[in-house]
Amino acid sequence: MEYIIVIVVSILFSIVLAIIFGMNIKKIKQIGENKKLDNLTNAFPENIDICKSILKKFNNTKVKIKEEKESKTSLYIILTDTITIANIRDSYTRIQTIAHECIHACQNKKMLWFNFIYTNIYMLYFIIISILTIIGIIKEPEVFLNILIIMAMIHYCIRSFLETDAMIKARYVAYDYLSENKIATRRAN
After folding, report:
1. Are the beta carbons of 23 and 142 closer than 8 angstroms?
2. For residues 86 and 71, is the Cβ–Cβ distance under 8 A?
3. CB of 40 within 8 A of CB of 187?
4. Which residues are bridge partners to 83 per DSSP?
5. Which of these, 163, 56, 177, lies nearest to 100 by C-alpha position?
6. Which among 173, 115, 179, 123 has a CA at the least distance from the CA of 148?
7. Would the pTM of this model clear 0.85, i.e. be above it?
8. 145: nearest Cα among 44, 39, 10
9. What pLDDT shows up at residue 187?
10. Phi and psi for 100 in degrees, rounded to 5?
């Protein structure tokens, strides 16, 4: 019964937060879709060239770069030291998105490795505890849930630091890239 209460409270809390923050998924998607601005991106270099240029600025030329035409997610993977660029060729946000992943590639490697290893341990712990509770091996999961909550808070702190750092810096890196390469002014004239 207490699990049902926790689930209901969590759902209600999520709904309240969505209302408070005024989350409108359609509006958020519309912000990222602007045909006029998307058409301006045709003057921008290829995604891989942008990525190489930004990484060179950070003195980081060892990172592998690949472009996935079928993917909708750009990401940096510490395990392979690879930036994967999604199919964002026609998006006006692509330089900032690429800059974001380049910043991840240049962040503290110890922290990136810790995040990678810890995230996998955290997910594995969650799966194991869930299975053991469902099949009845764990009769009183409160201790395990408390450990999971502590692990979640640590995961949140590390992940939010990495993402916030990359999001804040990406804006300025993208602006510098556009200014130095005179891309925006060349297209505007």
Report:
1. no
2. yes
3. yes
4. 65, 76
5. 163
6. 123
7. no
8. 10
9. 45
10. -60, -45
